[in-house]
């Protein structure tokens, strides 16, 4: 039986036709994947279904009757719930307070219901805990519980696994299957093909705002699905070559750090080396100290000059130096947030290249050489396949994947000795992510030492020589990628330290 | 009366203009709106309240008129900040200057005139205590002001409405996504801030020093804004901060009267210095700031 059916749904923003004549049927009690690259129109489609946006044309049928939604409230009243990619929780409140903002009832009654639902669906969370103290996985459980409390018939999940360790993903899938067995339909947005094959019984593929096919994902292998998603042959990353790594470029020696932000994770005894011509990865669930560690390596957080030589770059103690001084030694850095830290959204791409590449002859006698700036930017755009009208385009106007390709390209253009990239492919589509990984592999072959923080285990296994896992501010020993499997990393991530240390 | 008795008896009344205005601003800021026009809204409330009481409309009517006038001015700010999405700092400053200007205009013919203040109500038994007794002989507005502080504390801590106000201030986008009307809630918070600033102004001009003089608010609105931040957006600390400020102002007067050999300008700056020091020390706790600070404060919000 069809629960939700869309016919000819279209939505245009300015000149961008985000959705064109979308047809979609979601059956009752099915887990239905919406698959597509970034910018393919997945988010717009979900906003239309959840009533955040209204379609320009087309109809939406719910239980066989036409429905027009003008707000999320109406969607919720009809039984449509949504779990957002960026959680819409309030950090300074308790779990039960967050839920009481949506569901009526006294705190005591709600807390009891939260516990009951948790046991029922494997979504255990302490209703009296403050949200800021919860892990990402727990926050997601809170979001799902909040949706389930309103008794939805259709649950929309936007990239729910992008933030979870493998064990939590499996746990989430158990919950989702249990929901399906009780008649709830699920729209599962993702670009992770293996997960879709493991979980979903239908998959609708979007490309450039149109539906390019609806298939049973279990009948196709990941490679065939990927081809449907990007519309061409899957690009291939050459596996890293086995050249012997050279001298040490980055060394952290037993670094302890307690940030002044009380919600931040303290770091304990972090030891790590990165050598010439190798890629070292740091895996872990976000919020386990990655951000704090990244700031210590980039120089955004400085150590006290008397703190001792705990951070060494190219053999020099740099703990007390700021980002500019470290960059002069040969460090390049791709931060986690593209907008605001990696690039200034309001400035053109040209001006954004100037920000870190000013040393490459873009400034003469204190004046900016606009022609050189444009040349360099055009080079980056061409070599990294950045899709943009040109160097004058505002950085904030680029899609996430394209901007990320640009930022990585800019840092690579610096010909760094040491590159540090934090979540280089986060939220980037398959095509762009593959391109970025290939650029990193090329750079490594040229002798650069690379440190990558990522939550995507598959990515780390694809490009890294060695891995560490960060958990609650502690770093695992170095693990050789060729000697371990994702499950070993997963055990380190959840603290069951049965992994083989190399 | 001893100096301590004098300070205890007067500090609540001295604190009241700060406390009332700051309570309104606290609610406004908790909803994510920074209104820097408090000074001007207090001035407008002060003159409107004074004119009504002077034409013997009585204090009840005077406070109501003052609250209403300042609320209208606050809503003009709200329109600028919320509908037009102007910069909140600039809009607040502009509205503040407008309010001070209007108060001078309306008060022109009332300059240096006086009215009768409010009688003191003594709490039985407590007001008979030695030294402390003065603390329990206050006018009705003081008792109501302290009740208001208690009510706002309970509102923010225990009620759904308080939860919604905090939600809107912490993350307006999430609040909208789960179905709350962010702009409407912020308008209401701004209006409440205006109402309280009006009461504060009326208290200053018709009860605390019952006379009208142009510029009589004399920076009290700014102190109120600062108190909110120093109190880390917690009503309990706000009461403490306002009382501390009142007490130090009075002790400075007492010191001058008893002929302490200190420069009088230095003495007059004492309340400001003391308040900044004490509240600066308490607000240095980053955990408290993070839990109670308003994440979206001053940011324009548009869907």
From TrEMBL, chain A:
<dbReference type="InterPro" id="IPR027417">
    <property type="entry name" value="P-loop_NTPase"/>
</dbReference>
<dbReference type="InterPro" id="IPR050107">
    <property type="entry name" value="ABC_carbohydrate_import_ATPase"/>
</dbReference>
<dbReference type="InterPro" id="IPR017871">
    <property type="entry name" value="ABC_transporter-like_CS"/>
</dbReference>
<feature type="domain" description="ABC transporter">
    <location>
        <begin position="250"/>
        <end position="497"/>
    </location>
</feature>
<keyword id="KW-0547">Nucleotide-binding</keyword>
<keyword id="KW-0067">ATP-binding</keyword>
<dbReference type="GO" id="GO:0005524">
    <property type="term" value="F:ATP binding"/>
</dbReference>
<dbReference type="InterPro" id="IPR003593">
    <property type="entry name" value="AAA+_ATPase"/>
</dbReference>
<dbReference type="InterPro" id="IPR003439">
    <property type="entry name" value="ABC_transporter-like_ATP-bd"/>
</dbReference>
<dbReference type="GO" id="GO:0016887">
    <property type="term" value="F:ATP hydrolysis activity"/>
</dbReference>
<protein>
    <submittedName>
        <fullName>ABC transporter ATP-binding protein</fullName>
    </submittedName>
</protein>
<dbReference type="Pfam" id="PF00005">
    <property type="entry name" value="ABC_tran"/>
</dbReference>
<feature type="domain" description="ABC transporter">
    <location>
        <begin position="4"/>
        <end position="233"/>
    </location>
</feature>
């Amino acid at each position: 039986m069809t629960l939700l059916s869309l016919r000819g749904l279209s939505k245009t923003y300015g000149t961008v036709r985000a959705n064109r004549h979308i047809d979609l049927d979601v059956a009752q009690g099915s887990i239905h994947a919406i698959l597509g690259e970034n910018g393919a129109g997945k988010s717009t489609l979900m906003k239309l279904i959840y009533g955040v946006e209204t379609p320009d044309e087309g109809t939406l049928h719910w239980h066989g009757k036409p429905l027009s939604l003008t707000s999320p409230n109406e969607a919720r009243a009809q039984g449509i719930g949504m779990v957002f990619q960026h959680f819409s929780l309030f950090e300074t409140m308790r779990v039960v307070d967050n839920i009481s903002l949506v569901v009526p009832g006294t705190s005591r009654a709600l807390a009891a219901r939260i516990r009951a639902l948790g046991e029922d669906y494997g979504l255990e969370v302490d209703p009296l805990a403050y949200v800021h103290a919860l892990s990402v996985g727990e926050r997601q459980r809170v979001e799902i519980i909040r949706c389930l409390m309103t008794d939805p018939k259709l649950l929309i999940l936007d990239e729910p696994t992008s933030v979870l360790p493998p064990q939590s993903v499996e746990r989430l899938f158990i919950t989702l299957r249990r929901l399906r067995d009780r008649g709830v339909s699920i729209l599962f947005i993702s670009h992770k093909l293996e997960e879709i094959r493991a979980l979903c019984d239908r998959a609708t593929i979007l490309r450039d705002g149109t539906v390019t096919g609806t298939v049973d994902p279990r009948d196709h292998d990941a490679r065939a699905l990927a081809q449907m998603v990007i519309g061409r042959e899957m690009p291939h990353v050459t596996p890293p070559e086995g050249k012997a790594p050279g001298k040490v470029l980055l060394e952290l020696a037993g670094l302890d750090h307690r940030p002044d932000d009380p919600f931040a994770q303290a770091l304990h005894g972090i030891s790590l080396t990165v050598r010439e011509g190798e890629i070292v990865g740091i895996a872990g669930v976000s919020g386990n100290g990655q951000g704090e560690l990244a700031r210590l390596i980039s120089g955004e957080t400085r150590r006290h000059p008397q703190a001792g030589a705990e951070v060494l770059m190219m053999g020099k103690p740099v703990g007390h130096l700021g980002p500019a001084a470290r960059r002069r030694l040969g460090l390049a850095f791709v931060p986690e947030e593209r907008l605001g830290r990696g690039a200034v959204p309001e400035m053109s791409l040209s001006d954004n290249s100037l920000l870190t590449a000013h040393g490459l002859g873009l400034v003469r006698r204190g004046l900016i050489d606009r022609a050189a700036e444009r040349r360099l930017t055009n080079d980056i755009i061409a070599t990294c396949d950045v899709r943009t009208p040109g160097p004058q385009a505002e950085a904030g106007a680029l899609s996430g994947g394209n901007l990320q390709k640009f930022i990585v390209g800019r840092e690579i253009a610096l010909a760094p000795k040491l590159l540090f990239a934090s979540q280089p492919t986060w939220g980037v589509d398959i095509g762009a992510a593959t391109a970025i990984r290939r650029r990193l592999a090329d750079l490594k072959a040229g002798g650069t030492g690379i440190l990558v923080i990522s939550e995507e285990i598959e990515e780390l296994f694809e490009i890294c020589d060695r891995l560490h896992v960060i958990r609650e501010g502690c770093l695992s020993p170095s693990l050789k990628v060729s000697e371990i499997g994702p499950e070993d990393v997963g055990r380190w991530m959840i603290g069951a330290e049965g992994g083989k240390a190399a | 009366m001893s100096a301590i008795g004098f300070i205890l008896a007067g500090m609540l009344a001295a604190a009241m203009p700060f406390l009332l205005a700051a309570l309104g601003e606290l609610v406004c800021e908790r909803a994510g709106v920074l209104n820097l026009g408090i000074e001007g809204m207090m001035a407008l409330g002060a003159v409107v309240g004074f004119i009504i009481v002077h034409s013997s409309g009585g204090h009840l009517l005077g406070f109501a008129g003052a609250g209403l006038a300042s609320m209208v001015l606050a809503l003009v700010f709200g329109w600028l900040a919320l509908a037009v999405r102007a910069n909140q700092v600039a809009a607040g400053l502009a509205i503040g200057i407008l309010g001070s200007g209007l108060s001078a205009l309306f008060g022109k013919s009332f300059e240096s005139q006086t009215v009768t203040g409010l009688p003191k109500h003594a709490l039985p038994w407590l007001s008979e205590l030695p030294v402390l007794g003065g603390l329990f002989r206050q006018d009705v507005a003081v008792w109501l002001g302290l009740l208001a502080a208690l009510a706002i504390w309970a509102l923010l801590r225990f009620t759904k409405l308080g939860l919604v106000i905090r939600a809107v201030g912490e993350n307006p986008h999430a609040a909208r996504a789960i179905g709350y009307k962010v702009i409407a809630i912020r308008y209401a918070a701004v209006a409440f801030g205006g109402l309280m600033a009006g009461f504060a102004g009326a208290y200053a001009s018709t009860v605390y020093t019952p006379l009208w003089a142009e510029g009589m608010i004399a920076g009290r609105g700014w102190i109120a804004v600062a108190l909110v931040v120093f109190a880390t957006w917690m009503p309990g600390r706000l009461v403490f901060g306002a009382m501390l400020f009142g007490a130090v102002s009075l002790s400075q007067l007492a010191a001058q009267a008893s002929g302490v050999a200190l420069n009088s300008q230095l003495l007059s700056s004492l309340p400001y210095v003391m308040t900044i020091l004490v509240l600066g020390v308490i607000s240095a706790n980053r955990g408290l700031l993070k839990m109670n600070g308003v994440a979206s404060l001053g940011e324009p919000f548009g869907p």
